[in-house]
Design goal:
- This protein is of the alpha+beta class.
- It has 2 helices and 4 strands.
- It is globular, with a radius of gyration of 14 Å.
Length: about 90
């Protein structure tokens, strides 16, 4: 099994456009925003179009918790945002 985080050039060779369609609930522990970042980086690197279907966050009114100290950046937390950030993925 090959472990990888981002689509490779080989993965994207037959792709005309990548579509990202995942609704987020605005919680740092949901890793959708990390996946979006990785997909964005790969699409930019390999010249692929990316369409982000950015839906409203159902919890947009709720912001709570500490902002991530970047000394503790991990696969769960990648950005200096509160635990519950109220943002949408895009």
């Amino acid at each position: 099994m090959v472990k990888k985080k981002k689509p490779t050039q080989e993965d994207l060779k037959d792709i005309d456009i990548m579509i990202f369609d995942i609704q987020d609930v605005g919680c740092r522990f949901y890793t959708n925003i990390n996946t979006l970042r990785d997909v964005m980086e790969s699409c930019a690197r390999y010249g692929k179009e990316l369409l982000i279907l950015d839906r409203p966050n159902p919890n947009a009114y709720f912001i709570d918790g500490p902002i991530l100290d970047m000394n503790y950046k991990s696969g769960i937390g990648q950005f200096p945002i509160p635990a519950v950030h109220g943002l949408n993925s895009g």
